[in-house]
């Protein structure tokens, strides 16, 4: 089946639920058995890891299991586990794969809270972290150690948008016996197929495009058959569980994911191209633009681009940047992304290596192009840039 058809059908089984086209919301903690024989069978099924088997609400309901099954199939993995947030998925996956004395390689362009968890939490338990340049590719083999257990990748990089050569990194990691963990939130299950490129665990902040409406928090980790028992056990040991209401919102979001992402792709690229030609912009960091340093890798490995990218203004003044943001009418100032709304947030490139190679001088902003008409978004950006340029000329 084509991807759009799969989005409309995965995670649904009307015959199981009285013909209801959507899997219902199953709220519950206690699950009763009608006899000791049924109770023993439920326990045996859970011990054998039968999909959908449960003895207690914390281990899932038909609602959460339906979403897990749908995402695993979309990403091409073995099984998936839900979490209450994207960060919860990241921290649980790393906890499940690492132990005292292990070493992890992490791209220095990774999501800040990921790095914070490693430095503030896992370091206290004897896990050593080395940050690496996201552009390293096969050269990561030189950084591998006998105790390297995980190589963490995020492509594109958070805020700075470097594209990584995941197949080359995975090949080097697997030669050493290390697992490759990827934050695949930007690529989504539609625009990047992680398991076709050597990834062992793919993490989605489903809060973003999968939910798609900025009204639920959710994380998902999709695993290979080898990593699944470790991640599942870690989730249970840490008491990770997800609201069936949030899972239902994500299932609903799946039905329009393809339509929304096509709009995000086209509108984001239209806005990025316009910005690239503006004389008040120093740089546009969008992997689908030919000017992007990682464009060739993006063309090789990705099937599309979402609406998230960064821009650098031609001003070093924080006050000018503040004035530009305050002048915007259609771009909300706030964190997160992946919903229907357009957003802007300033950032300062950081990290042990990123800051050293950051080649631009101006103020940096991350934009999310939502589902508004791109012509209106361009007009909004234009008036804000005009106001900023007037202030610069006056100064």
What does this 3D model show about the protein?
The chain is an alpha/beta fold. It has helices at 3-9, 36-47, 62-75, 86-97, 112-120, 166-175, 188-191, 228-237, 244-276, 295-301, 318-327, 354-357, 374-394, and strands at 79-83, 103-107, 128-132, 148-154, 179-183, 201-204, 219-223, 281-285, 308-313, 332-333, 343-347, 364-368. It folds into two domains: 3-253, Aspartate Aminotransferase, domain 2 (3-Layer(aba) Sandwich), CATH 3.40.640; 257-394, Aspartate Aminotransferase, domain 1 (Alpha-Beta Complex), CATH 3.90.1150.10. The chain has 13 helices and twelve strands. Strands 1-7-6-5-4-2-3 form a seven-stranded mixed beta sheet, with helices on both faces. The protein has a five-stranded mixed beta sheet with strand order 8-9-12-11-10, covered by helices on one side. The model has no long low-confidence stretch (mean pLDDT 95).
CATH architecture type of the largest domain? 3-Layer(aba) Sandwich
Overall outline: globular
What is CATH's topology name of the largest domain?
A: Aspartate Aminotransferase, domain 2
Task: Give the class-level CATH name of the largest domain.
Answer: Alpha Beta
Radius of gyration: 22 Å
Share of residues in helices: 25-40%
Keyword list:
15% strand, 13 helices, Aspartate Aminotransferase, domain 1, 39% helix, 7-stranded mixed beta sheet, alpha/beta, 2 domains, Aspartate Aminotransferase, domain 2, 395 residues, globular, 5-stranded mixed beta sheet
């Amino acid at each position: 089946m084509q991807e759009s058809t799969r989005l409309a059908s995965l995670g649904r089984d009307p015959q199981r639920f009285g013909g209801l086209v959507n899997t219902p919301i199953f709220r519950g903690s206690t699950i009763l058995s009608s006899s000791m024989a049924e109770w023993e069978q439920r326990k045996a099924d859970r011990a054998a890891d039968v999909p959908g088997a449960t003895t207690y609400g914390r281990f899932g309901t038909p609602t959460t299991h339906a979403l897990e099954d749908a995402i695993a199939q979309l990403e091409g993995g073995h099984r998936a586990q839900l979490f209450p947030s994207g960060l919860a998925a990241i921290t649980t996956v790393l906890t499940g794969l690492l132990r005292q004395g292990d070493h992890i390689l992490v791209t220095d362009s990774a999501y800040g809270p990921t790095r914070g968890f490693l430095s503030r939490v896992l370091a206290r338990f004897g896990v050593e972290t080395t940050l690496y340049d996201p552009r390293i590719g096969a050269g990561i083999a030189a950084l591998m150690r006998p105790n390297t257990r995980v190589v963490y990748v995020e492509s594109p990089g958070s805020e700075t948008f470097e594209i990584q050569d995941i197949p080359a990194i995975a090949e080097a990691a697997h030669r050493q016996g290390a697992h490759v963990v990827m934050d695949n939130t930007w690529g989504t299950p539609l625009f990047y197929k992680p398991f076709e490129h050597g990834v062992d665990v793919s993490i989605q902040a489903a809060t973003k495009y999968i939910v798609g409406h900025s009204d639920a928090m959710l994380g998902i980790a999709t695993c290979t058959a080898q990593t699944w028992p470790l991640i599942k056990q870690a989730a249970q040991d840490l008491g990770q569980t997800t609201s069936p209401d949030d899972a239902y919102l994500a299932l609903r979001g799946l039905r329009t994911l393809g339509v929304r992402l096509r709009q995000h792709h086209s509108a984001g690229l239209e806005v990025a191209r316009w910005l690239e030609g503006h004389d008040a912009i120093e740089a546009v960091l969008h992997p689908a633009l030919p000017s992007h340093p990682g464009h060739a890798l993006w063309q090789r490995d990705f099937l599309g681009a979402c609406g998230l990218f960064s821009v650098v203004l031609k001003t070093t003044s924080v006050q000018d940047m503040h004035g530009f943001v305050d002048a915007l009418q259609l771009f909300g100032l706030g964190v997160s992304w992946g919903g229907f709304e357009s957003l802007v947030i300033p950032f300062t490139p950081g990290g042990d290596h990123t800051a050293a190679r950051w080649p631009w001088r101006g103020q940096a902003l991350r934009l999310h192009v939502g589902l508004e008409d791109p012509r209106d978004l361009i007009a909004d950006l234009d008036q804000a840039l005009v106001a900023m340029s007037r202030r610069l000329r006056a100064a």
